[in-house]
Amino acid sequence: MSRPAPVVVETAKELELRAAEWLAGALRETLADGGRCSIALSGGKTTGPIYRTLAMTTLDWGRVDFYFADERCVPPDHPDSNYLLAEQNLLRPLGVKPEQVFRMEGEREDRDAAARAYEAVLPPDLDVVVLGMGEDGHTASLFPGHAALEERKRRVLAVVGPKPPPWRLTLTMPVLQGARKVLFVVSGEGKRDAVRRVLVKDEDLPSARVTHAVWMMDRAAAGQ
């Protein structure tokens, strides 16, 4: 499958608006068949404003189930929690019911048990996934050179990453590759080299392995 052409916008604000518009469209398209829709959210500085804009969208939100691409092993009210970021910027503004939200329980002492519990609630395939990318090319909590990147059987793993807090729960590559629609949102000059490597299909970078994803970035990240 050929990689969709990247979408480059001039500013971070435009990225926020375009990404929210794309996500709303992907959700509407899935909901059009009359069933439910699943979306997996990511954390990071870029996603918060996107979620705030998305929360202003008119949609049948009662038929959307919310999952997470990864989570730091911290309590849900911790500043580093991806759940907290989503809760503050998207879930609370929408008034989403608790039974629609499937949180990774990163605070559990038995991290492998937490990962297996999350595997048990994941749908067979996610409809929509929002991903970011680190300057090293990682996505979710799948880092370059890490053994978890080659996992093919498990759908969720507890991993140790190179950045604090080190312990994370993450969806594995088969889950990301099997999602129906994936959007990468990337902002900032520090991502420019990784973007270049992704676009030439350098699969040493985890982000490059999600080949059907739509990439949306600001000019700072895209360069020339």
Report on the structure:
The protein has 224 residues and is α/β, with parallel strands linked by helices. The protein has a domain at 1-125: Rossmann fold, CATH 3.40.50. The protein contains 7 helices and 9 strands. The chain has helices at residues 12-31, 47-54, 82-94, 111-121, 173-178, 192-199, 219-222; strands at 7-9, 37-41, 64-68, 70-72, 128-131, 156-160, 167-171, 181-186, 214-218. The radius of gyration is 16 Å and the shape is globular. The mean pLDDT is 96.
Q: Secondary-structure blueprint of this entry?
A:
Layout: E1 7-9, H1 12-31, E2 37-41, H2 47-54, E3 64-68, E4 70-72, H3 82-94, H4 111-121, E5 128-131, E6 156-160, E7 167-171, H5 173-178, E8 181-186, H6 192-199, E9 214-218, H7 219-222
Parallel strand pairs: 1-9, 2-3, 2-5, 5-8, 8-9
Antiparallel strand pairs: 4-7, 6-7
Helix pairs in contact: 1-2, 2-3
* Biggest sheet strand line-up: 1-9-8-5-2-3
> Could you report the average pLDDT, rounded to the nearest whole number?
96
Count of distinct strands: 9
Overall, the morphology is globular
Catalogue the unreliable spans: none
Distance between the termini: 25 Å
**Which structural class is indicated by helix and strand composition?**
alpha/beta
- CATH topology type of the domain at 1-125: Rossmann fold
* Rg over C-alpha atoms, rounded to the nearest angstrom: 16 Å
Number of helices: 7
Portion in beta strands: 15-25%
CATH-level-2 architecture of the domain at 1-125: 3-Layer(aba) Sandwich
Which range best describes the helical content: under 10%, 10-25%, 25-40%, 40-55%, 55-70% or over 70%?
A: 25-40%
| Element pattern in H and E | EHEHEEHHEEEHEHEH
Top-tier CATH class of the domain at 1-125:
Alpha Beta
Biggest sheet descriptor: 6 strands, parallel
